[in-house]
Write a structure and sequence with these properties.
Blueprint lengths: L1 E5 L15 H15 L3 E5 L10 E3 L6 H4 L16 H23 L4 E4 L2 H9 L5 E4 L6 H8 L6 E5 L13 E4 L19 E4 L8 H10 L4 E4 L6 H7 L8 E5 L6 H7 L3 E3 L9 H8 L4 E4 L4 H4 L6 E4 L2 H9 L6 H11 L2 H19 L1
Parallel strand pairs: 1-2, 1-4, 2-3, 4-5, 5-6, 6-7, 8-9, 9-10, 11-12, 12-13
Helix pairs in contact: 1-13, 3-4, 6-11, 9-12
């Protein structure tokens, strides 16, 4: 197959060490895996990008954040607040999409795989080559309305969990393909130390305060790995409870160093307060043999096997109770679960078969 792949012009691939941007890493793993299977992959990504086995097309674009390094404002729930910076990022991305579809016009690809829905829809509408969008963000009602404007075209959606589809089930979904990880980068550990772990962004949605509350309820040690903030949430819900002993902040650590925290933790706490489409933290932890205790939100019931690879709970009190019985979980079962369902190979299998099905349907 001749496959075109595109994510964003905001960052190169791979992104800088200080940037956590999962869609780029997912695209890189998918592209590399497909190339290793003999497919011809063209990766559209800005200057400074590299990926073995693929053809890189940059359109001579410098990454947006090289010129505008400050992080843009993030969308909140249904509120679509387009800042001026966001409008400029859109243009950067659309220029990269335009390069892709210009090349497709001159010599059509078999399939186009995109990771940014709103940037590509207008161009995909006038193309004959099927475009498949993997959505990495929550789905809102506006997605249904926007996609409806371009429904009479060969454009399809892939969800990263079944739960992700629920707010807009009438979209043109064709498959769910779970994210995968390179488990060789997450070695198994049978002998944890005596602490629980919260890892990720420190904010209300991620439930950092709830993790602290659960640890205090059951009198267990908690280490927090994530950037220390200066906002009201940090000042009122987090910092007052950091004692350097039972509740300790490790600050923001490089992604490559998170493995040692996973390996040493008795369990990872994920008290999310939003419908997260897919939490990579869950499968990274379980790959190391570390159980997950998570709130019953978003993709959690699809990823965590309750009572086998951790516990699914509904309240802080239930989380505290689960922490007391975490030694009932066999860490080897956690590793096996990831090996069976959430590896890079499983993810590439899913996309390869999907692309072939779409091409055969077109033929």
């Amino acid at each position: 197959m001749r496959i075109a792949s595109i994510v964003t012009a905001a960052f190169p691939a791979p992104p800088p060490p200080s940037v956590v941007y999962a869609p780029i890493w997912m695209a890189m793993m998918i592209n590399k895996g497909l190339a290793q299977r003999g497919h011809e992959v063209t990766f559209f990504t800005p200057n400074g990008s590299r990926l073995e086995g693929t053809t890189i097309v940059t359109a001579e674009l410098e990454p947006f954040h090289k010129n505008y390094p400050q992080e843009p404002e993030i969308y909140q729930a249904e509120d679509i607040r387009h800042t001026e910076r966001e409008k400029i990022i859109n243009l950067w991305d659309q220029r990269l999409f335009a390069e892709l579809y210009k090349m497709d016009r001159d010599k059509p690809f078999d399939v186009i795989h995109a990771h940014a829905l709103d940037r590509g829809l207008p161009l995909g509408f006038v193309a004959k080559t099927p475009t498949i969008y993997t959505l990495h963000t929550p789905v809102y009602s506006w997605h249904e309305k926007a996609f409806g404007l371009f429904k009479d075209s060969p454009q399809y959606l892939v969800s990263i969990s079944d739960a992700q589809r629920k707010p807009a089930q009438n979209l043109h979904w064709i498959e769910t393909v779970y994210n995968g990880i390179d488990i060789e980068k997450f070695p198994f550990s049978q002998t944890p130390e005596d602490f629980f772990l919260f890892i990720g962004r420190i904010n209300k949605d991620k439930g950092t305060a709830e993790a602290i509350e659960a640890a205090r309820l059951c009198k267990q040690s908690l280490r927090i790995v994530g950037g220390q903030g200066k906002d009201d949430y940090w000042n009122t819900r987090i910092e007052p409870f950091l004692d350097g002993n039972q509740i300790r902040s490790e600050g923001l650590v490089p992604y490559s160093e998170t493995v040692r925290f996973y390996q040493k933790a008795r369990a990872v706490l994920i008290p999310i307060r939003w419908e997260e489409p897919f939490g990579l933290t869950m499968i990274e932890a379980m790959a190391c043999g570390t159980p997950v205790i998570a709130f019953r939100r978003g993709s959690v019931p699809e990823v965590v096997k309750d009572g086998v690879t951790g516990f699914i709970v509904d309240t802080v009190e239930e989380m505290a109770d689960a922490m007391k019985k975490i030694d009932q979980i066999d860490r080897r079962a956690c590793r096996k679960h990831v090996e069976e369902y959430f590896t890079v190979e499983k993810m590439v299998d899913g996309y390869e078969q999907l692309f072939l099905d779409i091409i055969n349907k077109k033929a």
